[in-house]
Design a protein that fits this description.
This protein is α+β, with helices and mostly antiparallel strands. The protein has a domain at about 10-130: 3-Layer(aba) Sandwich (Aminopeptidase), CATH 3.40.630.30. The protein is about 30% helix and about 30% strand. It contains five helices and eight strands; from the N terminus they run ββααβββαβαββα. It has helices at about 25-30, 50-65, 110-125, 140-150, 180-185; strands at about 10, 15, 70-75, 80-90, 95-100, 130-135, 155-165, 165-175. It has an eight-stranded mixed beta sheet with strand order 1-2-3-4-5-6-8-7, with helices on both faces. Helix 1 packs across helix 2 (about 50-65). The longest helix is centred in the N-terminal third of the chain and has 17 residues, at about 50-65. The radius of gyration is 16 Å and the shape is globular. The chain starts with 8 loop residues before the first strand and ends with a helix.
Length: about 190
């Protein structure tokens, strides 16, 4: 079975690194915000224990090397502003799923695109993935823009796939092949 260590990645403005127990207060702040989890099938966190549990799961995945979960922090200040993760690996097919969240106070600065781009590059180059998948609520236009900017292509639609905050929500599926990623990089 393949394993997936979580390295430290750096970009022009960000550091992507493994989560630590010290991140609990900042992680809680991100996921306690109703705007951040608006399109997630989970309620906003109401207690720091949610963050502590999420970090404990991340630490376990680091030990088992089953997921790649990054804390996203600003390089100049060290402030944790979100998370990006590659998870649900299907080794035989060299594919996985993508998840991400950026604190609403930091939306509109390109941090999601920058952080996800670094994680994707790692997934394709170091992990040797061929395909990375994401699914989003079609009402989440900002997330769609980020995915499409990074080369993801819409591949499908499933009505009422999730129950989100008491209402059924649709899903739009996106896929990014290594060939799409390589093509995009050649154009930059």
């Amino acid at each position: 079975m393949s394993t997936y260590a979580t390295p430290v990645l750096t970009t022009e403005r960000l550091v992507l690194r493994p989560l630590t127990q010290h991140d609990a207060p900042a992680l809680f702040t991100v996921f306690a915000d109703p705007a951040v989890v608006r399109y997630w099938s989970a309620e906003p966190w109401t207690d720091i224990s949610f963050a502590e549990t999420a970090i404990a799961r991340a630490l376990e995945s680091y030990r088992d090397e089953t997921d790649i979960r990054f804390a996203v922090e600003l390089a100049d200040s060290g402030e944790l502003v979100g998370t990006v993760n590659l998870h649900h690996f299907f080794n035989q097919n060299r594919r996985c799923e993508l998840g991400y969240a950026i604190a609403s106070a930091h939306w509109g600065h390109g941090y999601a695109t920058e952080a996800i781009g670094a994680a994707l590059e790692h997934g394709f180059s170091a992990v040797d993935l061929n395909r990375i998948e994401a699914d989003i609520d079609p009402r989440n236009a900002a997330s769609a823009v980020v995915l499409e900017k990074l080369g993801f292509r819409k591949e499908g639609f499933m009505p009422q796939r999730w129950l989100v905050h008491g209402e059924y929500a649709d899903t739009v599926f996106y896929g990014l092949l290594r060939s799409y990623w390589d093509e995009r990089k050649r154009k930059i």
